Records
---
Amino acid sequence: MFVSTMVYAQDLYMVRVKQAFPEAMTELQNAILDHGYKVTRVQRVDIGLTKARYKTDKYRVVFFGKEKEVDAIVKKHPDLIPYLPIKAAIFAEGKQTLIVIMNPDEYGRMYPAKDLQVYFKRWKVDIESILAKLRAIN
Amino acid sequence: MIKHTLQTGRQGTPMISFSKKGLKDKQINDIVAYVRSFEKVKKDKVVAKNEPALIKVKSSYSFKESVANLKKAVKGANFRIVRTQAFDSGLKSKAKESKDKVIVYFCNFKMLNDALAVDPRVGLFLPCRVTVAKIGKDVYFYAINPVRLSRLFNNSELDTACANIKKLYVEIMEEANL
């Protein structure tokens, strides 16, 4: 069974799934690809984590984006550079897996330029859809 | 969320279930109220919201020199460089990758582990990253502003860590620009 809970209406989206880390990671990447994004990198962030009394060595950050979109944004709004590409953190907690992504509304608050809001709204729709897809899988 | 965590604990972490320890619902509610009193939410959130989204420093050097200076400054601050890559690496073919926008990822394992132990969600903004970008004729150092982002986690324990990381970013960029 793949059961999950999602916290919406927050600055961070967080989904807890009952799938083990490797399966949840695969599902996350597939859902990202299905929404037309490229996974640009999967970064380990767990070296030595177990030494900090945290019983997981399964922690990754998944970077994803769309080439044309990123190019267009950076050309006109280079100040968005440090926030691109989009990131999702995925980590094991016991036998479950948690996925955390920043709510794109926060980008809108940080970067109020009108032409950017189209991107942020699209990211929000896509990210909610990606997370909904993860919730729905059994 | 706080109540659920208190009731069930968090698997794989030192956080135990308080329900299993015999606390009643009302007692757990009291703890939730107490924990929430730590937040000082309104004041802190307003302060963080007024913080700029990013840390940006104009470099006095060429793009190539700026990247080299940055790496030197990162090492000088006792961080280890994890990776240096084109800003758009993975988005396009190697041949088409940007030549004038480079990301330097770095970390200090103790700092990383301490932050993750406080709140594992913070890994979303790790490891540390500074981007060097040539915009027009000018070269800039860019980083996220951890203080601005700290409000997202609603975890007062992270505030100090985020303020320290912001200070480090600024120091590293200034050092790279000497």
Note: Helices of chain A lie at 21-34, 67-76, 105-110, 114-136.
---
Amino acid sequence: MARIDFRQAGHLPNNRSGGQPGSPDELPRQRNGVTPQMHGRYPDYNVLDEVEHWDRETRQVVMARVEHLPPIRLFTTPEAQTLGAFCDRVMAQGREPKIPVLNLIDAKLFSGKREGYRYDDMPDDAETFRRVSQGLDAAARQHGARAFLGASHDVQDAVIQAFADGTLHGEVWDDLPPSKAWQVVMREVLSAFYSHPWAWNEIGFGGPAYPRGFARLGVGQRESWEAVPAFERDPVNDTHARHVEGT
Amino acid sequence: VRTRFHGLRTLARGAVRPPDNDSAFLLDVHRRAVPQERMARYDDTYPVDIVIVGAGAGGGTLAQRLARRGWKVVVLEKGPFWDPDSDWVSDEAGSHKLYRTEERIIGGTDPVELGKNNSGHGVGGSMVHYAGYCPRFHPSDFEVRTRDGVGEDWPISYEDLKPHYERLELELPVAGEYWPWGDPHRYPHTAHPIAGGAEIAVEGARRLGIEMRVGPVGITNGSFGNRPHCIYRGYCLQGCKVNAKASPLVTHIPDAIEHGAEIRADCMASSIELDESSGRVNGVRYIGDGVERFQHAEAVAVCGYSIETPRLLLNSTSRRFPQGLANNDDQVGRCVMVQGAPQIAGRFAEELRMYKAPPPEISSEQFYETEQTRGFVRGFSIQTVGPLPIDWARHVLADGHWGPALREYMRDYNHWYTLGALSELLPLSENRVTVVSDVTDSNGIPVARMDYSQCDNDRRNIASAKRTIHDILEAAGAQDILTIDRYAHLVGGCRMGSDPQRSVVDSDQRVWEVPNLFIADGSVMLTQGSANPAITIMALASRLAERLDLKRLDAQASRPRPRRVPLPPLIRAGGA
């Protein structure tokens, strides 16, 4: 495993030719707790170790996301399969463990929760998801695939990139503005993914902080319990420090 | 002598108790909820002195001021009476209920996202989830037509609001460094400590000759009455579970209740009733517990903010006002405004962990005023924003990254710091709130539609603000920069003026043609500067209350004499 210097920013997509990052498999595997796909920059950090320091109300809300997998109730099975494949690809969740993005979205929309605004040329959010499901298939067919589900990664990526660029057209997309649909769909996808403690482990987010708060605010400072980044320790001495010598 | 005076003033900082608002002392030491055991209850048929619709920045302040002066006040609030201990969480997605999320339609060439971004729900209004910035407007904001030939001049000046700003800064209280911009002034609480990212940004700005200062934020520095010190947990936008951040829920509602106001939560106003013979309003129709009710009142103040206030007026039709109350000149809902609020994030070598410390930390108003060389009129301010993971993900997405690239930027979260701009966008008549008759809410009331489009000056302003922040982050040593375009705040829609044909209310915020109907929220503003509007909305409500009480305004035929209410004890332990 190559050592990446995170003081430099050479790993960031904007600073790389082609605009794509290196493989996350270059990163250490998670040793404590879970991250999506088990890679991350803070291999010994598990925000769920801190649960006892959170207030009761917050604990209930956050733990429900980990402990209960909501069933799909709003979307039909074909819709759920297509949208599930989209969520996996757009969040780069190629293997387990995966954050159940679509289940969380389905639960929210099924309960009637909305965001408080609807574009004048767009349907209700739930209907937007349904039409996007049809629209992904339509766009995949334009690339010669039978449907979005089961299409090659190249086709899926081309469809998603066109969705992000707002250039999808034909069939569903003649009535559904792709840029606004992208905004609505990704707002829900990102809210679901980054509301999950596994994602917080991956990015080293401190998580809920009431009633404990934060005391170390300065450059490079962290609380005693906050995530220590990988590669900041000497791997040889580290095995002594963590009592994992020989494993 | 000067030095000695200054020394005493510094020593007294933070120790000065607001002379006529005991809210911080009426809260309980052991729980965060506002004590309601002693709250007055009025019968619907009893004509109270005033019904206030909405318990946010405007309504909360107006209720406290008038209750103190002996008025019998009922506040109707659509949302719940929050208990921060049991209702709020230290979590982004879990705070969904704080926002007004019922259906609204948005249109125009540059539609404005509502809900979480700018719309409150429940007692405290959107100040429950605002960041906490409390800058005053500049004197120039009140005369932009004279100075810059755009917008409208206000019928009042900065000097009319100044004493109310000073009073409110003691009540919230506002913490910050000496403020050199606009009308220079100091703040009652010293500035909060800032996090590492803000230190780096201040230094980057300094290298370019740009001054950034700490504050001004409505967050108590040190305990204040029974409100504890801020714990720097970074969840200001999710409702302050600590009670350290100011919102009317903790700054004005407790004192209003103590002086006889009733806060009637979970009550949705559906229309204001006009007495056709006298031309005066006589109460508000509302829905509470699923039942339609009617509260009689001598006067009505609408404080529903820039979308719900026009909606309520437009949904209140009568023979005198067939197009909606106060809308005979087709002015209701016009000139609704937002601020351009792009956010630009910089990547640095060290860990900065921008989720720590309150999102409002530092700001600059150096670019607030018109500078001819920039090619547009009016200006912008620069402020810290501290996005939590979901907001940070939307920021990364907006810069064009998804899939593996988005995950990579997200993993890099702890190395980033974010600044935002507030660009003053100009009032345009076609930017308007209307009601959609064929789309109704759960109570069967037609919903609001907001159309918004920018003009050229707006686009140039936002582009200039983004360039400036980009330069600051680069000067600070940023290794990569990501940008998101967005909006913040709502004002206008029922603006005040001196010409009845071009405004909805007069300089006393009284609806033209209806002598006992007032509007006391952000919708009366004619311009917005590049300041966060909360404290100005409160100052306008505070001024209205003063004028009502000085009988400059005869909202009522006769009023009860002010009651003497004994001061509460300094500390009230729960159960003691």
Note: The first helix of chain A runs from residue 56 to 67.
